[in-house]
Amino acid sequence: MKYKARSIVSAAGRYSNRHLNQPKRVLRIGNYWSWMNPDDVTTVIQTRPLLFPLRYDIELRRSFFELLCEHRSVSGSTESSLESAARGGPYYQWFEHVLVPRNAPHMINNPQMMNGLFSRRVAENVALFDSIRTRGFDTSQPITPYAGIQVGPSTEGRSINQDFYAGDGCHRLACLMALGYDELPSEFVRPKQFRRLNPLDNTLVLAKRMSIPAEWLA
Prior knowledge:
The structure is a single chain. This protein is an alpha+beta fold and 218 residues long. The protein has two domains: 1-30; 35-216, no CATH class. 51% of the residues lie in helices and 11% in strands. The protein is built from eight helices and six strands, in the order αββαααααββαββα. It has helices at 2-27, 47-51, 56-72, 79-87, 90-103, 111-135, 170-178, 202-207; strands at 33-35, 45-46, 144-151, 165-168, 183-184, 192-197. The strands form two sheets. Strands 1-6-3-4 form a four-stranded mixed beta sheet. It has a two-stranded antiparallel ribbon with strand order 2-5. α3 crosses α7. The protein is globular, with a radius of gyration of 18 Å.
């Protein structure tokens, strides 16, 4: 029942953000957002600054795609062996300590449901990787970096001033990084600018659960 109530509240919040954003933007009230005009993006968006130092979780996601590349180079490897290896690696720590508590808290004490969700995640990531490798990046589903007219402290209280922060499309970003992309072509991104932005800080959330390089914690 508690999970159902949280789901209703979450859905109501998404509906409100989607349908009230335009009038808030016109009236200049609240925390509205707008898509940035490509002409306003005057610099090439580099991949590493999007995640460093606030989004170590994306670094962990990249590690999964690098693991996938390694498995593909080994004769006889299977998706089952990939999943087993991923469960023992850093990607699972992100899944267990960030994704499930934040997006599926009802699964925390249900290993069977968590295992099923992780298996689906692995399958989806493999499909994403294969799609980008064989057909190229789908520009109809661009990565969405976030920017802010006013940028406040991160969600964990750190002040990190950047032009852009990781927003939506983080698995696609991690996959591109594993494939060697240091910069994002303009057609791969559609930046979103908020009136006020407090960037998400998953690094310090993960630091409570695992060892993280000191440079990410400054």
